[in-house]
């Protein structure tokens, strides 16, 4: 019994070992090889499909397509053909793309009328969404924001946990978490990351800053001076230390202000008690003295009597 060799992305969804050819048949699309995934029981086929019968992927995570890269792929397809099939599902009278939009576009531009495809037996939109996102995240060269958005959609629309997402896409959970954190960056920085103006390393350094203003300020420095990731990390670290110092100074000022208020209240209380001027004096170590003024010996006797009465 022969085996069907699969590409890297599809292999993550259906392993080579779990797929066996069960029969062949001819239809209007050319020769299709039917197979069954022995793990999930899913039926599918491999063959050439007319381009005009393939609809776009409504769950495509890629938002931008590099024109020069697409042109290179088109020339490669003209010279060598389409080496890796796209993946699709049956959708009414037509098919719906799961992954391989760059190959599909390049094939159309190259003048092809059909394209090799894995036709998967996907019936629910939820399953389609999950497979489309996972397949594209694993196979395509998405920018970090597109990957992060894909992870977020898997969590929100497919009700997956971060741990489940990490298992589905074959990445560490910490990697998934780091990508998701990118979506907390200001929109300007996210756009810059999409355009490859800054790298994932730059973005991860900026994320550690709590202040959006600081993130934008350092981001602008990156663009202006073409700063390396290491220099940005140093800037962020220095900013953090300065912020901590500022917070410490602010805290000390607040304590001093509060101490002054407390001293004034205590001095006022003592003045009322002794009916004379009272001053609290202390040094930075917390040592000090209470100065009670008197204006005659009789006044001193009165103060002493007041102190004795307190005892």
Q: Can you offer a commentary on this structure?
A:
It is a single chain. With 311 residues, this protein is an alpha+beta fold. Among the domains are: 1-142, Conserved hypothetical protein from pyrococcus furiosus pfu- 392566-001, ParB domain, CATH 3.90.1530.30; 236-310, no CATH class. It has helices at residues 8-13, 67-80, 101-109, 125-139, 144-157, 162-169, 173-181, 187-194, 200-207, 212-225, 229-274, 297-310; strands at residues 19-27, 30-37, 43-50, 54-55, 86-91, 94-99, 114-120, 278-282, 288-292. The protein has a seven-stranded mixed sheet with strand order 1-2-3-7-5-6-4. Helix 4 packs antiparallel against helix 5 and helix 5 crosses helix 7 (173-181). The termini are far apart.
Helix content: 40-55%
What is the correct CATH architecture of the domain at 1-142? Alpha-Beta Complex
Rg, Cα atoms, Å: 35 Å
Give the overall pLDDT as a whole number.
Answer: 76
The low-confidence parts are 1-31, 35-43
Count of helices?
A: 12
Helix/strand-derived category reads alpha+beta
The CATH C-level name of the domain at 1-142 is Alpha Beta
**Number of E-state strands:** 9
* Major β-sheet profile: 7 strands, mixed
Q: Indicate the CATH topology of the domain at 1-142.
A: Conserved hypothetical protein from pyrococcus furiosus pfu- 392566-001, ParB domain
First-last Cα distance: 104 Å
Shape descriptor reads: rod-shaped
What letter string, H or E per element, gives the SSE order? HEEEEHEEHEHHHHHHHHEEH
GO molecular function: DNA binding
Organism: Chloroherpeton thalassium (strain ATCC 35110 / GB-78)
Keywords: Chromosome partition, DNA-binding
Family: Belongs to the ParB family.
